[in-house]
Write a structure and sequence with these properties.
The protein has helices spanning 10-13, 19-34, 39-45, 51-73, 75-95. It is mainly alpha-helical and 100 residues long. The protein starts with 9 loop residues before the first helix and ends in a 5-residue tail after the last helix.
Length: 100
Amino acid sequence: MQQATINFTAQQVRARVSLADKVRGLYRSVNRWLDARSAFYSRIAEFEVTRRAAIRVNLVTMAVLVVVAAVETAPVAALAAAVSAAWLMYRSLMKKGGEA
């Protein structure tokens, strides 16, 4: 029986992958995961809900709870913050050509 030897270098085994390609692939896979159907929220809502929409709804809920806590502890500061946020949104919509 004859024995054969194989000589190779590391570059032949592993192709080089740039960091930009890895980041791009990670970005695509995260977006695919976010755009996938959320079984839990779809079952509750009785229509198709993506994971991205579920995360947004949860973030809005958390923001509302923070606002409630802020209004309860410092109502004047919360009112000033709400007025300034409304003004900033109004200005940004007007710059984009939106309707006020």
